[in-house]
Design brief:
The protein starts with a strand and ends with a strand. The protein contains four helices and 14 strands. It is mainly β. The chain has a four-stranded antiparallel sheet. It has a four-stranded mixed sheet with strand order 4-3-6-7, sandwiched between helices. Strands 11-10-13-14 form a four-stranded antiparallel sheet, covered by helices on one side.
């Protein structure tokens, strides 16, 4: 298992290492149990239901440093750079115990071949009781999905669900609708610029905005396994051998950024797993911030 350790002057005090509130009151649902309020397209219900092994040893095996030096930068040359379009981030909440998930998993695998998107599979654990414990599932990924639901005013979580750019939610593998949302994300001007330099596990990440942001943000580093093959022995998908892509193994909130002064972070990563950095709005919540729109993202080339 690979990982990331970090030190930062300011932290969010975020739940489960993801930076967002946990809603224990929300319950899971299959696609065909969803109320009309979820906005499922006709026929989508039949195509739905609910990531890699828990990262218990992740932080113990990781060394690194993330350092927030925004105060020292002030209005530096960072703010004079043009902001280029980031890849569109797509999060798939899925489970090996969900019989409706394989088509969505296959769609994500297709997206993993593209450079204009960052597709990430987060396996949730609330279908494990059906007889097959997903080895990729982590409770923190379930917590992240619940936080998205809470931010959207929803009371139900379900699989498969795709979240595009931290805002748009899709029920099931709706390829045409997803492609339209990807185009929408690519056409929208990014409010935040991000530049990554370095290689071989040592990186400098620069973040800036032409105009001050209305909401604070959280900077996150995500590690993932590019591919994995699993033979499912029990549960709703018993007997199926599945190929998975971009299976998230760890998701760490490493720093906060107020969206005003440019910021520079340094990060050291161990292991061979690819990584991405994501800058995301932190919406106000009752007990902790909630995930909002994704403002910028970049790959950390290995």
């Amino acid at each position: 298992m690979t990982g990331l350790a970090f030190i930062t002057r300011a932290t969010f005090g975020m739940a489960a290492g993801l930076g967002f509130a946990v809603l224990a009151s929300l319950g899971p649902a299959r696609a065909d149990d969803l109320p009309a309020a979820v906005g499922a397209a006709p026929g989508a219900a039949a195509a739905m239901q609910s990531a890699p092994s828990p990262a218990a040893s992740d932080e113990a095996q990781t060394r690194g440093l993330v350092e927030d030096v925004a105060a020292a930068l002030g209005k530096s040359a960072l703010s004079l750079r043009p902001i280029t379009q980031s890849p569109v981030v797509i999060e798939l909440f899925t489970s090996q115990g969900c019989s409706s998930c394989p088509p969505a998993d296959a769609l994500l695998a297709e997206l993993a071949q593209r450079d204009d998107v960052i597709p990430l599979a987060l396996h949730v654990d609330y279908w494990d009781y059906l007889g097959w414990e997903d080895p990729f599932a982590q409770p923190s990924f379930t917590a992240r999905q619940k936080a998205y639901a809470y931010a959207a005013g929803e009371r139900t979580i379900y699989t498969p669900q795709m979240i595009v750019e931290g805002g748009e939610a899709l029920v099931g593998p709706q390829a045409d609708t997803l492609e339209a949302l990807i185009r929408k994300g690519k056409d929208a001007a990014d409010p935040v610029g991000i530049a990554v330099s370095g290689a071989a596990g040592k990186y400098e990440i620069e973040i800036w905005s032409d105009n001050p942001l209305d909401q604070p943000t959280v900077v996150q580093i995500v590690r993932y396994a590019p591919e994995a093959r699993v033979k499912i022995l029990r549960g709703e998908n018993a007997g199926i051998e599945m190929d998975y892509a971009n299976v998230v193994t760890s998701w760490h909130a490493v720093a906060q950024w107020d969206g005003k002064a440019p910021t520079r972070l340094t990060a050291t990563l161990e292991g061979e797993e690819p990584a991405v950095v994501i800058v995301q709005s932190a919406l106000p919540g009752r007990k902790a911030p909630l995930p909002g729109p994704i403002l910028a993202a970049a790959r950390l080339d290995r």
